[in-house]
Amino acid sequence: MFRTTKLLIAAAVLCFPLVAQAKAPSSAADLAYCAKLSNLYLRYVGPDPNSRDFAGVTPDVDGGVAVAKCREGDAATAIPILQRKLSDAGFTLPPRG
What we know:
The chain is mainly α. It has one domain (25-97). 66% of the residues lie in helices and 0% in strands. The longest helix has 20 residues, at 2-21. Mean pLDDT is 77; it is low at 15-21.
């Protein structure tokens, strides 16, 4: 029994960091704001793969990942990246909410 208890404690200690990193689901307001930022980013900052001018343009991987994260519902990860990309491009961020 003592060995089983040790194994259970060891398993709990090893799994604790994974549980601590789990993210809360994004709220509807966060997802809406994320979508707004994504649309602005895709329209004005990120290259449009459907345009004729896309050839020879190096895509911005961070921005593309942020847009994908937003579409997946991970607004907490996407919003700070999109905010930084838009701010760096000289845009005033839209109000949140």
